[in-house]
Every structure is written in C-alpha cells, then in structure tokens.
Amino acid sequence: MMDTEGSEIHMGELGSAPSAKTEDGEIWIFSVQTFDSPRPESTININYDGFAEDVKVGDELLVDSGMVRFDVIEKIGPDVKCRCTDPGLLLPRANLIFWRDGKDVDFIAISFVKSAEGIKHLKSYIATRSRDSDIAVIAKIESINSLKNLEEIIQASDGAMVARGDLGAHIPLEQVSSAQQKIVQLCKHLNKPVIVAS
C-alpha cells in the first residue's frame, strides 16, 4: 500500500531549535531566501520559490493544517510578512496552505488526485513497474481542487477515500459533511468502493 502525496508548501528547519512558539499578534516573516549567516529572528524559510508572488495581502496562512494561523499583512520582495492570529507551536517541515476568501488556494502543480489525467498517469506508472499484479488506485479526496473534478476522478479511480481531516483544513468545516455525503453518494452511483477516514 502506498499513499502518494500531492505537491505541498513546507517550512524549512527552525535552526538549532526543534520548535518555535508563536504569540498572538506576533509578526513573522516567511521567506524563500537562503541565509548564509544565522536566520533573522521570527523568520522561516519556505520551500516554494513562487511563494511571495502567489500569495496576496489579506490571505490567511494555516500552518500544519491550522494548528497555527497567520494573516498576510505585507509582501516585501521575496519575503511575506504575517501577523499571528491563532498561536501555537511551529515545527520544522510543517505544511502550509493559504485561504483566500474562505477557500484553499492551490499554488503548485496538479497532484495525482486533482484530475482523471493524473490518475491515469499514476496507473500507467504502477503497471509498468508491477507486471502481472492486481493493483488498485484509491483517490484520496482532500482538497477543494479534488472536489471540483470529483466525478472524473472517481470514474478514473478504483475507489475513493474521504479525507475529512484534510478537507477540514482546505474548506470551511461546516462544508465537510456535505462534501463527504456527495463523495459517498457519487461512489455508490458509480459502483465504486469508498472509505471515510477521520
């Protein structure tokens, strides 16, 4: 069994400290710059070069699926200045997503479960490396882009998984139950197995 992950934006290491605590209202800089000398205080490296270009002032940054939240208040060249609105613990390699107008913003290339084409490529790749094996592809529905292409994704897959926790970080929580119901009903209609995960 293999769980392939879509493209994600991640934070870099936090220097010598294993974690960093944030405070409400505190200002942090998220940067794509690399620093030869010690990184400036309250600055975090990001692994995506187009980060500062794609993000907008007013976006909400969710770290580690919403464990810590920031508002984007200013862009300065390759740096994005943010104010902490929901404090917590920052951990190295934590994933980042942005909400704009209450919706997840997808910055990077299409992931395997965002289109039927991606699933076909994945199936082809698996088939060439595991001849005479019966391998099924279950599409993990975990982002707003997956929901947009839901029917074609499920038709191209051998089944689907409703990733409720991940969906709750990408769409408003009150929409998760209706999205789950839609996925389950569509799978039943197309005679495909469906897994509901927490």
UniProtKB/TrEMBL annotation:
Region named Disordered: 1-20
Pathway this chain belongs to: Carbohydrate degradation; glycolysis; pyruvate from D-glyceraldehyde 3-phosphate: step 5/5
Entry keyword annotation includes ATP-binding: yes
Domain Pyruvate kinase barrel, chain residue ranges per copy: 1-91, 103-197
Cofactor: K(+)
EC number(s) from the headed UniProt entry: 2.7.1.40
Matching InterPro entries: Pyr_Knase, Pyrv/PenolPyrv_kinase-like_dom, Pyrv_kinase-like_dom_sf, Pyrv_Knase-like_insert_dom_sf, Pyrv_Knase_brl, Pyrv_Knase_insert_dom_sf
Keywords: ATP-binding, Glycolysis, Kinase, Magnesium, Metal-binding, Nucleotide-binding, Pyruvate, Transferase
Reaction(s) catalysed by this chain's protein: pyruvate + ATP = phosphoenolpyruvate + ADP + H(+)
Family the entry assigns: Belongs to the pyruvate kinase family.
Name of the protein this chain belongs to: Pyruvate kinase
